[in-house]
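Q: What would this chain look like folded?
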Amino acid sequence: MTKRTKILVIGDIHGNAEALRAVIDAEKDADHVVFLGDALLSGPQANETAELLIELGPDISIMGNHDEEVFDHSLFAHWPEEWVALNEWIIERLEASSIEPLREYLPAGQYEIGGLKMFLHHGELEKPTPAALPDAPDESFSTMDGDSECPLILFGHTHVQFTRTIGDKTYINPGSIGQPRCGKLHACYGVFENGRYDPRQVTYDPTPWLDALARVDVLDVFPEFQQWLKDGLLNGYGIGEREPWTRFAAEGFN
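A: My prediction, written as structure tokens:
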């Protein structure tokens, strides 16, 4: 990788166009973009997020579990009814131009971007393997890249920004752009610049996201759930202020 090459690494946007826009504005000089998956669901700004991603033009986009759900509704059919209603509402309103790029998302594997070799994985692991969180056993990380000899592994899914070194391998989660879980209202991402990795965060105005959520009329019959979604964005605990997220927040994770 040449010293002047700048690679932007993003993941877990979840239909939050305001957060993605803030990251794009902060890193306008990026030469390459890696997207680790989960673009549109389950956020109220899905089409706007898709438009921004098209304009951004990631070099590589990895298929995430929520990207798969756009095409296979059975994957969330067993969820609580409020989540099913929200996802169906979003999917029914997706433009064709929002859906088509997702069909080109790639599986986990080794890739080379800007001269940098990396193994990319969305980060979802089969049960009973523990999720790849900061306190997870080594097994959770080695499961992702298997027999690959690539020393650099990038992943998402768990929405916590951290780096883990195991032997001669480095595992990096750039954090979540659209739904952080460690008690801060900001967008998390990472940048490789001058051959070095830097985890970054940027704040943004959540008002347009909140306005978009208020227009999701299917949630009118689930007011407590709608308020829970709103609170989760504003307090930075995307899926609830509880363990292990409160502990990670206390330990300084983003």
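The CA atoms of residues 106 and 218 lie 32 Å apart.
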